[in-house]
Amino acid sequence: QLQLQESGPGLVKPSETLSLTCTVPGDSVSMTNYCWGWIRQSPGTGLEWIGSIYYTGSTYFNPSLNSRITISIDTSKSQFSLKLSSVTAADTAVYYCARHLGAGFNQGFDYWGQGSLVTVSS
Amino acid sequence: QSVLTQPPSASGTPGQSVTISCSGSSSNIGRSYVYWYQQFPGTAPKLLIHRNNQRPSGVPDRFSGSKSGTSASLAISGLRSEDEADYYCQAWDDSLSASLFGGGTKVTVL
User: Fold this and answer.
1) Which distant-in-sequence residues (6+ apart) come within 8 Å of A79 by Cβ?
2) Contact B88 A46 (CB under 8 A)
3) Which of A6, A26, A112, B25 is spaced 20 to 30 Å from A99 by Cα?
4) Nearest residue of B to residue A3, measured between CA atoms
C-alpha cells in the first residue's frame, strides 16, 4: 500500500502563492512507470484535476488554472510539489496528491494522499 | 458545471441494485478509458473501477463498470449500508488535454 503524504501551510493569504509538497515512499517518484498528479476538492463540491508531472519534468495542467500553476519534481527527495499563484477564496480546498495508474497523464489515479486542507483568508 | 455529467443522487434499499450514469462526449468518454472512485466523507477517493470495467484487487464484484459510446455506468448490485458514499467518474479529454471528473453522485441506502 503506497502512502503519499501532502505537506504545506494550511492558511494562505489572498494574492499570495499556495505551496504544497507530496512525499512518496522510497524512490517511487523516479520510476518510469508512473506519472504523479494534484487534485483538489472545494468544500462540499466535487473533484478538480489541477495538473500532473512525469519524472522527467514533463507536465500537463488544467487549462482553467494553467497560468497560475507550477508543478515540479525532485527525484532525489522523492517528492513533487505544487505552487498555485495569486490565490483567492475560491482556491480554498482540500488538495490531494495522487499517483497515476501508469506512465500516461490520461490514466486514472490508484493511490492518493490523505489530503491537505488549504484555506485562503487574510 | 462538469463536462462529465452525473446525477447528483441515487438511492436504493439493501439488496437492490443501483446504477450511476456518466455522460460525456466524443472527445472524452468516446475515446478514453473511464475510471470510477468511491469517496466517504472526510477521506480521499478510492479507485473503484479502471479502464472502463476493471476492478482493482480488493474491490468487491458487486461493483461493475461499463461504457457505451459517450456514456459510462457504474452498477452496484446487492446494495449494502457501507456503500453509502459519493461516486465520481473520470476520463481524459483529448480536446482539452485535461483530466475531467464528473460532478459526483451521492448514493443513499434507504
Assistant:
1) A21, A22, A23, A24, A29, A73
2) yes
3) B25
4) B44
